[in-house]
Amino acid sequence: MTKIHKDVSSILFDEQVIHDRIQVLGDMISKDYEGKNPVFICILKGSIIFLADLIRSVDIPLEIDSMAVSSYGNSHVSSGVVKIKKDIDIDLFERHVIIVEDIVDSGLSLQYIKEYLAKHEPASVKVCVFLDKPNAHKVPVQIDYCGFQIGNEFVVGYGLDYGENYRNLPYLGILKEEVYQ
Ligand code: IMP
Ligand code: MG
Fold it and tell me: pLDDT tens across 65-122, in order?
């Protein structure tokens, strides 16, 4: 047993389940965006692993870009005040954009990112998220492609962190209570 695995109390979705679900999302996107050369925007850092797997399940031409945002305020509660830490590089004017997010909790980050990207006058903006916590939304969010819906539990792995750790767990898990103390 290695250091990070021993901190996990349970596995919510294992590698195979994640892989199979992402292939379904990839197939939907390939069909919906045929001939559109979409730009996938990876929201750093949590979406890195999801994006890497997602784009390899898509079999049409596409481009990738990335953006990093940080949410101010209490670390456990989203404040809705978002700061851009890394901007996009590609000109999105009249492009078809797919925002790739790790997880939607309050929905405030996604709302901000969507409004920000809309200012670049893209042809369309859709949202693809690995995880959604529907009971935690504080604002209405339109999610076009969703990997899995979960409850309000705090999850780690497959790119998602707790204090910048556990992103490299290959599965999605829940940490033992004692880790948070
Ligand atoms: P929102 O603005 O509240 O929707 O914030 C979403 C962001 O909060 C995500 O991009 C994650 O960085 C973080 N987050 C929310 N829930 C979790 C979780 O269960 N595990 C890890 N990060 C989370
Ligand atoms: Mg995030």
Answer: 999 998 765 555 556 678 899 999 999 999 999 999 999 999 999 999 999 999 999 9
CA-wise closest residue to 101 among 40, 164, 154, 155? 40
Q: What is the DSSP letter of 92?
A: -
The answer to whether the beta carbons of residues 158 and 170 sit under 8 Å apart is yes
Q: Which atom of ligand 1 is nearest to the CA of 106?
A: 3
pLDDT tens digit string along 15-63? 999 999 999 999 999 999 999 999 999 999 999 999 999 999 999 999 9
Q: Which residues line ligand 1 (CB under 6 A)?
A: 46, 71, 78, 102-110, 154-156, 160
Residue 121 CA to residue 116 CA, distance in Å, equals 10
